[in-house]
Amino acid sequence: MFKLKQVFLTLVAFAFLAACNNQLQENNPTPEHEVSLKKGDKKIAGAYVVTFNTDNNRIAFRSQDYDQRSRTMLDYTQKFVEKYGVSPDRITRTYNTAIEGFAANLSDKEVKALKADPRIATVEPDYEITLDYKVESNTGARDFIPYGIARVGRANGAGKLAWVIDSGVDLDHPDLNVNRSLSRTFISGAPNGDDDNGHGTHVAGTIAAKSNNIGVIGVAYGATVVGIKAFNSAGGGSVSITINAIDYVTARASSGQVANMSFGFPPSTALDNAVRRLADRGVLVSIAA
Predict the structure, then answer these.
(1) Quick one: residue 240, left, alpha or beta (phi over 0 = left, psi -120 to 50 = alpha)?
(2) Which residues does residue 129 pair with via DSSP β-bridges, in sequence order?
(3) Alpha helix locations (H) across the chain?
(4) Each residue of 150-207: pLDDT tens digit?
(5) Which candidate among 86, 240, 255, 279 keeps its CA 20 to 30 Å from the CA of 247?
(6) Which residues is 24 bridged to in the sheet?
(7) 221, HSE (Cβ side, Cα atoms, 13 Å)
(8) What is the residue extent of each domain of the chain?
(9) End-to-end distance of the chain based on CA atoms, in angstroms?
């Protein structure tokens, strides 16, 4: 199954172990190779993330359904930017729960005008985020205990749920309990939250791989994972896509669940605020250091 050398995810380990009972500790773990996680820092030319000032701007959402709220936000945004000469096709994403705002392709003049509008809180450049990792195999291992999990301990995660914001999760993996109906993609051309890169499935295995005599054991073994696809097959993503994924999780997650983001990202007020709003919902948010 997961023929991977694992690492890290100390934050998600502690998050889950805080929620799980009967923790087991390993006193003599075997060191592993590390996974390298690289921050994306390349600005995307002409691309921006814009957030509304909710003190000066009220949007009448008539439903708590995420997709209906998304349509309301898109309609509102299209009308809002029309006065600035921004055509509807230049709006690339909208956000309605973790933050209220949108991503769009804008000129310098349009950016300046939006920043001067009191109904706008922030206008920030969009940046690429890239997954950069390598994983060594542990061929032949059965219920292998990775180094990081041995260090922090493990527990039965049955009944717990983790949202894995990453490259998706292998929806049919035999060593994972995957909630397919909640899994979702935010990558153009990808039909669902299935993983075509490998990083997200690796992360999901670290979190929740079953104790079933194959592959590795997760820190919260047997927990259910949800694959949220925010990176493509080459490991490419962006700040605007990541916020989209967080926005969806904020709308669907429940207090006491975990959201995991095993990647770095450049400074972004909009992204920070989205994470804070998710945490305010009672979701335990784990982010790679």
Answers:
(1) alpha
(2) 237
(3) 10-19, 66-82, 108-115, 147-152, 199-208, 239-252, 269-280
(4) 888 999 999 999 999 999 999 999 999 999 999 999 999 999 999 999 999 999 999 9
(5) 86
(6) 154
(7) 23
(8) 10-38+131-287, 43-128
(9) 27
> Distance between CA 264 and CA 12 in Å, rounded?
15
| Contact assessment for residue 262 and residue 272, using Cβ atoms and an 8 Å cutoff | no
- Please give the structure tokens belonging to residue 157: 């995660």
Residue 9 pLDDT greater than 80, yes or no: no
The residue among 244, 174, 222, 230 whose CA lies nearest residue 197 is: 230
Q: Which residues make Cβ contacts (< 8 Å) with residue 194, sequence separation at least 6?
A: 168, 169, 170, 171, 183, 185, 227, 229
Tokens at 223, concatenated:
């927990």
Fold topology of 43-128: Alpha-Beta Plaits (3.30.70)
In the numeric block, the tokens 């079933």 are attached to 212
Class assignment of domain 10-38+131-287? Answer: alpha beta
